[in-house]
Specification:
Elements (H helix, E strand, L loop, with lengths): L1 H15 L6 H8 L3 H7 L3 H26 L3 H17 L6 H6 L7 H23 L7 H25 L2 H14 L4
Helix pairs in contact: 1-2, 2-3, 4-7, 5-8, 5-9, 7-8, 8-9
Pfam families: TetR_N (PF00440)
Keywords: DNA-binding, Transcription, Transcription regulation
Organism: Rhizosaccharibacter radicis
Length: 183
């Protein structure tokens, strides 16, 4: 039941954000009583933190697999960009941590720390991919470029979602590539 609750909650948050998460509506959706949700997650913050932690763990596994399969920066970044694009193709949803970041002031500390971990994980992975390009940049320059890439992709996803037009995302990524931001 915990997994079923997390799956339903993830879809809700990706579509509507943290503030839309309701234990009563979640319970109704999965066919249990609201008190049963509290059995698995004592608070909304605990549920959101668990969602963000799982999202990050799943992402780490996927990204680690990409690095194990190829050291081609373009190939790796193509697969990375596809993660964000696929959320849009799934009923115009957002990256879970990206959409919760927009509600940062409303998030409990345990959720904020998981969002920070997600961001750090993504930036570190992108910096590793940038090392493959063999450019003569410092580690700090790669980290700076990595945060720019992460921000650009999250931003493109947000703007495409708002416009309800996935081609905005695609054109943005192509422009980032032409500009030399993304390998």
């Amino acid at each position: 039941m915990r997994e079923t609750l997390m799956a339903a909650a993830r879809l809700t948050v990706q579509a509507h954000g943290y503030n839309a998460l309701s234990f009563r509506e979640l319970a109704q959706e999965v066919g249990i009583k609201s008190a049963s949700v509290h059995h698995h997650f004592p608070t909304k913050g605990a549920l959101a933190a668990a969602l963000a932690r799982r999202y990050t763990e799943d992402g780490v596994a996927y990204l680690s697999d990409l690095l194990a399969r190829s050291s081609n920066p373009t190939w790796c970044m193509d697969r990375y960009v596809e993660i964000f694009r696929s959320a849009l193709t799934n009923d115009n949803r957002m990256c879970l941590c990206g959409i919760m970041s927009a509600e940062l002031d409303d998030l409990p500390p345990e959720v904020r720390s998981e969002i920070d971990a997600f961001t750090a994980t993504n930036v570190e992975w992108i910096a590793k991919v940038l090392e493959f390009s063999k450019s003569k940049t410092s580690a700090q320059e790669r980290l700076d470029r990595a945060i720019a890439i992460f921000s650009a992709i999250e931003g493109a996803q947000l703007v495409a979602r708002g416009g309800q037009d996935i081609s905005i995302f695609d054109r943005s990524v192509q422009a980032y590539r032409r500009a030399g931001l993304i390998p």
